[in-house]
Design brief:
The protein has seven helices and 18 strands. By secondary structure, it is α+β, with helices and mostly antiparallel strands. The protein folds into three domains: 3-103, no CATH class; 108-239, Jelly Rolls (Sandwich), CATH 2.60.120; 244-314, Baseplate protein-like domains (Phage tail protein beta-alpha-beta fold, 3-Layer(bab) Sandwich). Strands 1, 2, 3, 4, 5, 6, 7, 8, 9, 10, 11, 12 and 13 form a 13-stranded mixed β-sheet that branches. The protein has a three-stranded mixed β-sheet with strand order 15-18-17, with helices on one face. The relative contact order is 0.08.
Length: 321
């Protein structure tokens, strides 16, 4: 593949703007990555760097899985940067060992649909469809910092020694442990922070815009740099978190598939007779995968366990009329 085109496709993938055809091209490229002569840094030194990065990438990667079944392309995009740097070092006579290349690249989670994400500190994030969350590999060391583009609901794990900070353009929201919603789309003039539990401080550069408590929100206008304080029924603002999580007489198998998609995990139903069983269940949206599966299995008298990374559900099934 032409190098300029490859670079453009990887950039588009990281931004979440690839078309299905472009994703297929990237998948094909990745399949040839180990031996394709058009790979960036095709010389011996760069190839050695690629091998080293591949060995180290699993250990360096954060706990949250990248979005979608093509997770390996996200890894490839990171490898691309490292290999290109290795080629430059080799070709321009710079000294240094492969270990000198930084692997502390940001982790990016993109949501093509409403997506549950659990951060390394235990904080739960519901990322709205079309939104993006980014954080560094050093997350949870001294200060927990993330960058949000779009909208997300945060339920932050309390840790008084490590403030949690969300960056949305020039606006910064800081908390210790609370639950709140942030709406910050680049194309919209307003950034809106709404608190459902606890207390948050919202700042714009060095100016404090608001200290919010439950059922309060601040609307910051980026054009006029003004902050409007409002009383609000917070539960209505975050109702999107529960979207597509209420099932009425739906098949057990379909509910399980939608949970697998939401949490980006593999779920297997051991007893085929369990899949067609009619199931009525509703989730709050803030559950993690284990909690959601406990609720689902309780409805049908089933059970689940995790085997080699796969959630396996088993139960007696049902008899359909």
């Amino acid at each position: 593949m032409d190098q300029d085109k490859l670079r453009r496709l990887l950039d588009k993938y990281k931004e979440g703007t690839c078309s299905p055809q472009e994703l297929d091209e990237l998948e094909a490229w990745y399949a040839r990555l180990d031996h394709d002569t058009d790979m960036p840094g095709g010389d011996t030194a760069a190839q050695g760097m690629l091998a080293d990065l591949k060995r180290r990438m699993p250990a360096a990667g954060p706990a949250v899985k990248p979005l979608g079944s093509k997770w390996y392309i996200q890894v490839a995009a990171t490898l691309f940067v490292g290999v290109a740097l290795a080629a430059l070092i080799f070709r321009y006579g710079q000294t240094g060992r492969p270990d000198s290349v930084s692997l502390h690249t940001p982790q990016t989670v993109q949501a093509r649909h409403n997506r549950f994400v659990q951060l390394p500190d235990g904080t739960r994030v519901i990322l709205k469809e079309g939104s993006r969350l980014q954080y560094a590999a050093s997350f949870n060391e001294k200060v927990r910092q993330v960058t949000l583009v779009g909208e997300a609901y945060f339920d932050v794990k309390h840790d008084a020694s490590k403030p949690f900070i969300i960056h949305t353009g020039s606006v910064r929201t800081q908390v210790l442990g609370t639950a709140f919603n942030i709406k910050a789309y680049p194309e919209q003039k307003d950034i809106v922070v709404t608190v459902t539990r606890g207390k948050v401080k919202v700042s714009e550069k060095s100016r404090v815009l608001a200290v919010l408590t439950p059922n309060k929100r601040v609307v910051f206008n980026k054009d006029r740099a003004t902050a409007l304080h409002q009383d609000i029924e917070a539960d209505t603002v975050v109702s999107w978190v529960r979207k597509n999580l209420a099932f009425d007489n739906e098949s057990f198998g379909n509910v399980a598939r939608q949970l697998a998609d939401r949490f980006q995990v593999s779920i297997k139903i051991e007893n085929e007779r369990l899949s067609p069983c009619p199931t009525t269940v509703a989730f709050s949206g803030s559950e993690n995968v284990d909690e959601a599966l406990k609720i689902l299995c309780l409805i049908r008298g089933a059970s689940f366990k995790k085997v080699n990374g796969v959630y396996v559900i088993d139960g007696e099934g049902c008899t359909l009329n």
